[in-house]
Amino acid sequence: MNQQLETSLDQLFSQWQNGICPGVQALIRQSGQTLYEKSFGYANLEHQIPITSRTIFHVASISKQFTVLSVLLLWKDGRLDLDDDIRRYVGDLISFEEPMTIRQMMNNVSGLRDQWELLFMRGIKINDAITSEDVNSVLKGQRHLNFPPQSAYLYSNMGFHLLALIVERITGQTLPQFAKERIFQPLGMEHTCIRSGYQEIIPGLAYSYQDEGNGTYYYNPLNYSLYGPTSVNTCAEDLSRMLDEYLHPSVIDPHIIRLMKTPAVLSDGTEAEYCGGLMTHKLEGLTVYEHGGADAAYRGHAFCIPEKELEIIFLSNTTSRLMSRLADQAARLVLGLPEAPEPEFPVEHPQLLPARSGRFLTARPDDPQFVSVTEQGGRFYVEREYGLTELTPTADGGWQIGTLEEKLYFLEDRILYRFPSRFLTLKPALPCPEDFLEAGTYLEEETSMTVEFAPADGGLSVRHPRFGTAVLYSAADSPEDAAFSFGPDFTMYVKRGPEGLILDGYRVRGLLCRRV
Length: 516
Description:
It contains 11 helices and 30 strands. By secondary structure, it is an alpha+beta fold. The mean pLDDT is 96.
């Protein structure tokens, strides 16, 4: 590697090269050779333990490819068929009527509602010690899907929970045991395991630190006691052994690799972006296979371009940067490709205004999301999960959110939230009038969630037994919809229906909530 390229790659990680901060483990390989391998920042801030090439990271949803691979190994053994109805294996957990196949779950076209929001509705918090039995309990209650299987693509962690369970019921082994014997050991992934419980000690594990862009890092605990959609713990060097198989299968059957790299085709003939535990897209005409991961403050991305025999793995223990964006930037540098285009402004010739305080809400069809801006002593701050982050004006008329790669642009009737690769539009959030719905207690039967709506200061409050009380808001220009939020993980739209309220979240749709 020439010095100029190395310097350019180093600059991608400049944020983690000064002071005591969390950071990243980076590995770039091409044609079987290591081009770049460096670590930046600290695995443990309390004891000031640096990240090294042997540091272990929880890689969150990057785990999904290993769950799919486990299923495909059993398929190759002749112990299941990918187009089997899942009731053949887990019928005791299924209450919905639609037939669903193993293949549809591993392609994320099943229509299954996602487990996390269903758990939150039941009163389980993201940092609780969530178990597989907790997931089974919400699965058993589901009588409807988000959509008919194969008709649409929507990411669902629940499908990978079921895939893990199918592996266990067929083999009599736990998924951690099966993956160790059939995947990790054959591939030489000596530092990799699936963590089955939060109580397990993982030698060399990096701690998880939230970065809100305000100069302070916050410990963000991860207490999962479940696996399938998550919970692989590994390092970049080990992960590269899996990416090697996507380029030149030598340990895993090539037919299995082809299935993992084949995008799902929807019932209308369109091709989805999801394959079997992998996502795919084009980078300047080149086919990319990749998957990201995000749990607590862990962030990771595994990325390969078979045509160029290029592998990129970035694993981090903080939320400072978008790993998929960093992987894209690194690939462009290595391959000499043009810089990524900036996301297009969704408004032509916007009249940008100074920052102002207020609460803002997305409108459909975007997923429900609130942004709160507050003013203190003439300065403006965004309310983040762990505290306030100051807004600073930028030359283009926007306002950067602390040190994060995120900006706000204030317009007369909305704000634009710019992420590294897209914009989100939010309208002023207005408290719903008291007559928006009939006050009282409402029950969502499939999750057994009860919420109480009550008049409050001329509007309506919503109370959840575990999460407390929030205000019901509607977005300007969308008075027929309302939304409430109990934090970034649990925000839902509310719409009136003929039989009650219809609740829509991020990856759960059309839940009926009746007054009791």
